[in-house]
Each structure stands twice: as C-alpha cells, then as structure tokens.
Amino acid sequence: MKACFHSIQYVFLDRDGVINRKPPEGAYISHWSGFHFLPGAESAIATLNRSGRRVIVVSNQRGIALGYYTAADVQALHARLQEHLGAHGAKIDAFYYCPHDKEQCDCRKPGPGLFRQAFRDFPEASPASSLMIGDSLSDIEAASRLGIHSILIHGDPETRKPGADEAATLADAVSGSLFQAVEECLS
Ligand SMILES: [Mg+2]
Ligand SMILES: [Zn+2]
Hints:
Elements: E1 10-13, H1 41-50, E2 54-60, H2 62-65, H3 71-86, E3 94-98, H4 113-121, E4 130-134, H5 137-146, E5 149-153, H6 164-170, E6 173-175, H7 178-186
Helix pairs in contact: 1-7, 5-6
Bound molecules: magnesium ion (MG) and zinc ion.
The site of magnesium ion has 8 residues, from loops.
C-alpha cells in the first residue's frame, strides 16, 4: 500500500469500466437498462463515503456529441445510479461529464476541465489531496498532468483498452477493480 494515499480526501472516479461494466469499444451506455455494476462497486463507494472522503465522478460522454443520447439521458441515468447507491448506503458527491466530441474542448479527459470544475465546487480540494481511479490512459494522463495521484483499473485482458500498458506505467498503482483498489489502498 502506498503511504501517499492516506492523505487522499477526494476520490475521482471514471464511470464506465470502474463503477459499471464497460460497453464494447465504440458502444455507449445511454440508459439505466444498460448499466451493470462491477462486483463490489457499491460497497467500495460506501467504504469511501464512511471514511469521510468525497467521491466525484468524472466521465467522458462523447455519445452526446454523436447524437446517441442527450445530456438529459445522462442526468437521468446518474439519478438512477444515485438512487441505487442510496439503497446500498453509498452516494456520489458530484458528477461531472464532458458532452463534447474529440478535440473541441478542454474538459474531455485527458483535458483538465472536469477536474477544474470540481476544484471550483470543492475549494478545499487540491491535486495533492486527490486521487483518480480510472481504466483508460486518458484518465491517468489527465491526473498526471494535474499532479493528481492515480490508480489504473486493469480489468479483463479481453476488453483492455489500447494504451493500457502506458497507463499502467504512468499510474501510481494498478488494481484489478474499484473494490480491490479501495480495499488495498484506501481502507
Ligand atoms: Mg472508463
Ligand atoms: Zn468537453
């Protein structure tokens, strides 16, 4: 376990591939019916909540720009997600998502915009007290550029994304799941 994680008060989570099962490359999750929790995700979030840390979701939702679903669909899905977590004694403190296509904004990860929004809303937060848990190079790169600690979720080799090896090198730690990352590094 890394000693630096003791000082973490803000845990940023990517959504797809960390909280829920990632859709196949090029596919998007638009509705609650397509949202399937990864094992132990709810209890990992509850553990983070109980430890007094803030849990913040930062998610690229390019499917909005592509017209596959709307911002309202994302918000409705997040409301259902929050409701489901509530039944497990867990909650997300804030959601941020990028609705844009590639190279049109500074908020699509690895851009810093979603984190900057969070730092505005949580003024006591800082990169040094923050940790990003993600399954993509873009998650780890975003964190690295901002000086935020990071854990890469290295899931199933079959659905592993391009750039996973580079991400593993860049991250402070690698874990098999959100559940495992919280058990090993944050409990
Ligand atoms: Mg992901
Ligand atoms: Zn954006």
